[in-house]
């Protein structure tokens, strides 16, 4: 059983590293950046959840973390809708403040 948790932790770490990789490659589009951030949050949630189950710690902290991640996702989507209404697209180039 402990080996299963160890493999799950490795899987969550791999998922986190891959989401960072996707975040660094998909910097052109705001939607892809937001989706990779959500994958990061989801992998951290699973990592916390599995480790809390191993250590028999109360799972309420993971629920609170999930609530904050939902609020973060809602804020990101509302900012994306705002930027699309103003600029007409979700390209990060058009969102840059310092235009030369």
TrEMBL record:
Keywords: Membrane, Mitochondrion, NAD, Translocase, Transmembrane, Transmembrane helix. GO terms for molecular function: NADH dehydrogenase (ubiquinone) activity. It is a multi-pass membrane protein. InterPro entries: NUOK/Mnh_C1-like (IPR039428). The chain crosses the membrane at residues 6-27, 34-54, 60-84. It is found in: Membrane. GO terms for cellular component: membrane. The keyword Mitochondrion applies. It catalyses: a ubiquinone + NADH + 5 H(+)(in) = a ubiquinol + NAD(+) + 4 H(+)(out). It comes from the Eukaryota. Belongs to the complex I subunit 4L family. This is NADH-ubiquinone oxidoreductase chain 4L. It comes from Xiphydria sp. ZJUH 2008002.
